[in-house]
Amino acid sequence: MKRVAFVSCVKTKSTTPELAEHLYISPWFRMAREYARRNADRWFILSAEHGLVEPRKLIEPYDTTLNRMMIADRKRWASHVMWQMDDLDVRGDTAVVLAGQRYREFLLTPLFVRFENVNVPMKGLQMGEQLSWMKNTLGDYQ
Questions:
Q1: pLDDT per residue over 122-140, tens digit each?
Q2: C-alpha distances out from residue 49 to 35, 61, 114, 123, 132, Å
């Protein structure tokens, strides 16, 4: 069974170029990254600037967010992400999406084409509830 996790980018970033998995420095992202590592065979970052990003890719800090994009731009972003998934042959049995509504709104339907199951474990939870859920789920995570 191949599980692929998708973790959205966050606003709080390092001020210097970093591997993507280390660029985002918020507590939420660090816990989501750990959840993805523990619960998926492969994982990616959903970047508002770059689309689908492999964790080991070196990238510069940026200040782009889907939260400020018009709907047409978010649709173009999602299409770009799907093209990147095709290019990297991203598919499997289960997709685990750790991302807010704006990041998943135009991705969920195409994900069902690539994956038998699409799981959004924190759907409907507010930020504090998400942090609490991840802390409880990760248990011994520091």
A1: 999 999 999 999 999 998 7
A2: 23, 10, 23, 23, 28
Closest among 138, 137, 73, 74 to 100, alpha carbons compared: 74
What secondary structure letter does DSSP report for 100?
A: -
- Both tokens of 132, joined, read 């609490």
| Tokens at 29, concatenated | 């992202």
Whole-model pTM? 0.94
Query: What are the backbone dihedrals phi and psi of residue 100, each rounded to the nearest 5 degrees, phi first?
Result: -75, 175
CB within 8 A of 38, min separation 6: which ones?
A: 138
List beta partners, residue 45: 7, 53
Q: For residues 83 and 51, what is the distance between their CA atoms, to the nearest angstrom? A: 10
pLDDT tens for each residue of 76-94? 999 999 999 999 999 899 9
Asked if 34 contacts 124 with a C-beta cutoff of 8 angstroms, the reply is: no
